[in-house]
Amino acid sequence: MEQAFIPSISVFQPHQIVCLEHEMSCLYAEVVQVATKRQICWVRPLLLSETLVAPSESDRPIVYDLRQGADLLWPVSLFRPALDTEVIPLLVQLETADREPESFQIARQQFNCFIQQVWQAYKSEFQAS
After folding, report:
1. What is the separation of C-alpha 40 from the centre of its chain, rounded to a whole number of angstroms?
2. Which stretches of the chain are assigned E, i.e. beta strand?
3. What digits encode the pLDDT tens for the residues 23-79?
4. Phi, psi at residue 124, to the nearest 5°?
5. pLDDT value for 107
6. Contacts of 22-25 spanning 24+ positions with Cβ under 8 A
7. Taking residues 73-100, what's their average pLDDT?
8. Which residues are paired to 19 by β-bridges?
9. Residue 99 gets which letter from DSSP?
10. By the 8 A CB rule, do 43 and 71 touch?
């Protein structure tokens, strides 16, 4: 699914959950601060949700825990407000998931891959105006 670029009518507020969509993945993050003059959003990633192309028996997305990872400073235009109804089930899935020792490393790799794909797809959004 391609991200729709809609000029930000309302500025995001601190602690608001936002979503950055790209293809079959969604990054959910908490807003820390917005630099309105530069249209940059400082966010703290919470989770990355990936929907499989082939439906599985559970139809639940794969969820990666990003709460121990790095923050991002990215263009506001890439984000949209996240709905409670979409975030809460993912957070529940995240909390009930088995904690394997290598899960943080896998989550970090998936996050890095996602960030690189988004950057490649929307390079023009990162150009200084």
Report:
1. 15
2. 17-22, 25-35, 40-50, 62-65, 72-75, 80-81
3. 999 999 999 999 988 889 999 999 999 987 666 556 778 999 999 889 999 999 999
4. -65, -25
5. 92
6. 22/114, 22/117, 22/118, 22/121, 23/117, 24/50, 24/51, 24/52, 24/53, 25/49, 25/50, 25/51, 25/114
7. 90
8. 28, 80
9. -
10. yes
